[in-house]
Request: fold
Amino acid sequence: MRRLFPVTDETAAPARGGTPGDGAAGGGGHEWGLAELAAAYAYPEPPAGDPRPWLRANMVSSLDGAAQHEGRSQPISSAADMRIFGTLRALADVVLVGAETVRQEGYRPARARAEFAAARAAAGQAPVPAVAIVSAGLELDFSLPLFTSPLVPTLVLTGAAADPDRVAAAERAGARVVVAGAGGTVDPARAVDALAALGHTRLLTEGGPRLLGQLVAARVLDELCLTVSPMLTAGDAQRIARGPSVAVPHRFALVSLLEEDGFLFSRYQRV
Reply:
């Protein structure tokens, strides 16, 4: 893996021999350890006396804008992408995800990583991030390990008018139900505030596209970590964000750009 931005001595090194895909062309690179990845993706330190939450998204897109192939993101991912995926989870207090993504991707509880145990303890974090599912209808399978065997209880964010029977089923399964919206909907801003009220200020969302679109529209997204996959899929797959367009496009600034095997790992923060 090599850093393309900000420019460093390594970035500017003369190109070595190699063929596309071997990680050598275009400058020196080396195997990044977890400590380097954790440093590269560390959450910004909040201003003194301002413990507001920081919400980052982690998504992958093909060259032609597809966020999925045949309904799943795994076919357009890579080993390096999954290393970053695991690192981002290890840095977060909570992983925010939409119910449809839970169903399509077969979500499981976050697993403890020995490499991050000391850092999480020092930061006052639980051994693993909680998974927080946004679900207005609570149409979830509460017999799944995500509910029955997580290291920390799974959270379910729903609206005030959620079906009481489904709420009871979630709670019987061990989930913590959090009301984050009036009526039968979940308000993205209230969801972020509700997680912060529980002590979760380092937030990570993994989508899917519908949830990310809602977070963008609500102007609560602080950061986007986007993997650009060197693949073309065609078809009619979703983009990384779906929903009503915003009145004025939101401007983000490039913070860093890494590369490995043709995959680009970008990090943008809200201006």
About this structure: Residues 15-26 have pLDDT under 50 and may be disordered. The chain has eight helices and ten strands. The domain at 2-8+54-270 is CATH 3.40.430.10 (Dihydrofolate Reductase, subunit A).
